[in-house]
Amino acid sequence: MKKVLIVDDAPDTRTVIRSMLKGYDVEISEANDGVEGWKKIISEQPDLVLLDLHMPHKDGFSILEDLDEEWLSIPVVIVSGDTQEETINACEYYGAKAFLKKPIVLEEFRKAIKILPL
Predict the structure, then answer these.
(1) 15-29 confidence digits (pLDDT tens)
(2) Do 5 and 40 contact (CB within 8 A), yes or no?
(3) What CATH number did the domain enclosing 108 receive?
């Protein structure tokens, strides 16, 4: 079974993503900030990370940079309300596989997940 990690400081967003993953054969883990998220990435080695950008303690950009520096090839889908072009470009530069804007649209979520190994 594939493992998916949701890293977002908003409990309602984690709930929405968890419900969108119903029907997929995945084990879901959650983190409510970037520090906890990074610890779970290292300890759990998930098959996919759904990552918010703006969080307390450690933001999503730092996690993307750390993944790149550590040569960890874990696919990341960004889930953020920050849809500025330079933000999206920075996420792509650091290896994000897809970018979903909040609020998440189910069809866009399915398209993003379809490109990943689940």
Answers:
(1) 999 999 998 999 999
(2) yes
(3) 3.40.50.2300
